[in-house]
Design goal:
Number of strands: 26
CATH class: Mainly Beta
Structural class: mainly beta
Radius of gyration: 19 Å
CATH superfamily: TolB, C-terminal domain
Number of helices: 1
Largest sheet: 4 strands, antiparallel
Order of helices and strands: EEEEEEHEEEEEEEEEEEEEEEEEEEE
Shape: globular
Helix content: under 10%
Distance between the termini: 45 Å
Strand content: 35-45%
Length: about 375
């Protein structure tokens, strides 16, 4: 099936806050970790070495094996960057960009050189109605001008009412499996319900079957971990393959979590309806896993993340780079060692470029950042000394 590349969707929706307009002034229990001071540290500086303009609320970015960037836009467009300019590959006709949803996560198959598959996560629907969130695989044409063979590999992820808290970050792990975050859809019971796919980290094969090693049993076969509010970042630590998730808090405590099979990350907003005064990690839940880092109060809405590799990045080699929406910054979260879960410090850069959605490292070692705006741009970053 060929995806229509004509008839661009209507003008993009205005930015929607991805934290509630009001929230708790303090957590009802102690934060899961002491907030790390987010001030410039010893990492160095970054230079914006290039800008590619013309995007409309770019959400995710990935790289083909030859280094070509490919980008999703919330309105439903998939685009590439060729010769320094944006080129639309296709417009996905069944994307419904409402609320916080639309066309979001993007991943390139590890075997892209032979199968040319890419994977997207989006709100599926029509005429202003979202039926579900789904993960769909496409084949990218060799000339980069079309997508074909649309194949839904996982459907039925809840969208909820109002399209709030969609998650939808997808990434291939070092295990060859496709991982995905899902939001809680502002449902009070979904995060702790192991049979629901909302408020979870999911894990599947590239063909869309439940991945071997998922908890299984009474759990939905795709669910790998539960107790999440709105996972916006997902990446894997190069030194040991640890899965790291970045999650939006309420009024307090955005989180960085290390994800393990069967882990419970403690979000349980059951109260008078959807109770956002609850702590992000309720440590009274047996086995609840504390975050590696939390923002304290107020939240800053961290989003896409990637581990930085390369000696040219100095003390940021091995750090977790995190794009931040509400807090309008790029964070470099430094750890005590290459496999350590102890945060040593957080350095803040790029505070003057507005809401930042995603950061990814290109094959040449540069960092690419998407600006969550319309018009928006891609920013190519290199170390200031490079």
């Amino acid at each position: 099936m060929t995806v229509a590349a004509a008839g661009l969707l209507a003008a993009c929706i205005p930015p929607t806050p991805e934290v509630p307009p009001s929230g708790p002034t303090a957590p009802t229990t102690a934060p899961t970790t002491a907030p790390t001071t987010t001030v410039p540290g010893p990492g160095g500086d970054v230079t914006v070495a290039g800008t590619v303009s013309g995007f409309s609320r770019p959400w995710d970015i990935a790289f083909l094996p030859d280094g070509t960037p490919i980008v999703t836009e919330r309105s439903g467009r998939v685009a590439t960057v060729v010769a320094g300019a944006r080129h639309v590959v296709a417009t996905l006709a069944d994307v419904e960009p409402i609320g916080e949803g639309g066309l979001m996560g993007l991943a390139v198959d590890p075997a892209f050189g032979t199968n040319r598959w890419i994977y997207t996560c989006y709100d599926h629907g029509s005429a202003g109605t979202v039926t579900d969130v789904r993960i769909v695989r496409f084949r990218l044409a060799e000339d980069l001008r079309s997508l074909t063979d649309a194949t839904p590999i996982l459907t039925g992820i809840p969208a909820g009412s109002g399209n709030r808290h969609q998650g939808c970050r997808v990434a291939f792990g070092p295990d060859g499996m496709l991982w995905a975050t899902t939001g809680d859809t502002a449902s009070p019971t979904a995060p702790q319900d192991p049979t629901s796919r909302a408020g979870k980290v999911l894990r599947m094969t590239p063909a869309g079957a439940p991945a071997p090693g998922n908890p299984g049993g009474a759990w939905d076969p795709y669910v790998y971990s539960l107790g999440h509010r709105n996972g916006q970042g997902l990446t894997f630590r190069p030194a040991d393959g640890a899965a790291i998730e970045v999650e939006h808090g309420t009024g307090c405590d955005d989180e960085i979590n290390r994800i393990v099979a069967g882990g419970n990350y403690g979000w349980n907003p059951v109260g008078s309806g959807y109770d956002e005064s609850k702590p992000m990690t309720d440590l009274t839940i047996p086995g609840a896993r504390p975050a590696l880092w939390s923002s304290g109060c107020p939240t800053i809405a961290p989003s896409g993340a990637t581990f930085v590799s390369g000696t040219e990045w100095g003390s940021w080699n091995g750090a977790l780079a995190v794009a931040v929406l509400k807090g309008t910054r790029l964070m470099f979260v430094r750890f005590d060692g290459p496999t350590s879960d102890t945060v040593a410090g957080v350095d803040v850069r790029l505070t003057d470029r507005g809401r930042l959605r995603t950061v990814r490292q290109a094959p040449d070692g540069s960092l690419w950042v998407t600006q969550d705006s319309s018009p928006g741009a891609l920013l190519r970053l290199v170390p200031a000394t490079a």
